[in-house]
Amino acid sequence: WMLDTYVMHKRGFIPGVITGKPIGLGGSAGRHSATSRGIICCIHKAAGHLKLGLRGATAAIQGFGNVGTHAAKFLSEDGVKIVAISDVDGAYRKANGIDVDAAIAHAAAHGSLRGFRGATRMRQPAELLELPVDILVPAALENQITRKNAARVRARIIAEGANGPTTPEADEILARRGTFVIPDILCNAGGVTVSYLEWVQNRMGYYWPEERVARDLQRIMEAAFDDVYATMRRRRVSMRIAAFMVAIRRVTEASEIRGLYA
């Protein structure tokens, strides 16, 4: 609707003014799963630094919408056991791994995980965050990991798929415990990255197959992770602070190069 309104006023088709469009209106292949692909890129990089083999590793995913379902699918394809998933209607756990395809099919058919029989329903959904897993993907709401429960979070890697799932107080606790937190500003940037790639394709008037989009997304996400990780090590700060430092540095450098009109 926003695209249609704009082009009708401009009297010309200019698809690059907005992203996330359907393919038929100049959208990009791979946009639907882009946020999750970015998350997986970051998890791969973090696991490499921690010398954590993904095949046989365990993961819990809070939130089973677009981001959570794709993250579960991609992780399971890497050999990770998804031992717990949740959505607004509850959390489900299975120690030897949930059949992700069955869970996705159930959610698609019923609108939620309610009644899913492929795992045991947990009494307290919030306990999913405290399970002894290698990877935790909070992909639901903000303020889920707080000073009240951070000390009980046992995951080695927290990959923030949601915006702001960890409070500043919880960040300090997790840092003291040695938890590797991939901050939202980096971890869930896959969606906006492919929005950028969509804009580039719109400007070119030439559209790439999903394989090309996924390859470019991976290259950009890995470079961003490496930059943040290097800053984290050099400055001896958290990954979140390092991400902010990288962002501010880029803006500052661009301003200095360009010069400021006075």
Topology:
Layout: H1 2-10, H2 34-49, E1 58-62, H3 66-77, E2 81-87, E3 90-93, H4 100-110, E4 120-121, E5 135-138, E6 157-159, H5 168-177, E7 180-182, H6 184-187, H7 190-204, H8 210-235, H9 239-258
Parallel strand pairs: 1-2, 1-5, 5-6, 6-7
Antiparallel strand pairs: 2-3, 3-4
Helix pairs in contact: 2-3, 2-7, 2-8, 7-8, 8-9
Looking at this protein, list some descriptive labels.
262 residues, seven-stranded mixed sheet, 9 helices, 47% helix
Report on the structure:
- The chain has helices at 2-10, 34-49, 66-77, 100-110, 168-177, 184-187, 190-204, 210-235, 239-258; strands at 58-62, 81-87, 90-93, 120-121, 135-138, 157-159, 180-182.
- The model has no long low-confidence stretch (mean pLDDT 96).
- Helix 2 crosses helix 8 (210-235) and helix 8 (210-235) packs across helix 9.
- The protein is α/β, with parallel strands linked by helices and 262 residues long.
- Strand 2 (81-87) and strand 3 (90-93) form a beta hairpin.
- A 7-stranded mixed sheet has the order 4-3-2-1-5-6-7, sandwiched between helices.
- It is 47% helix and 11% strand.
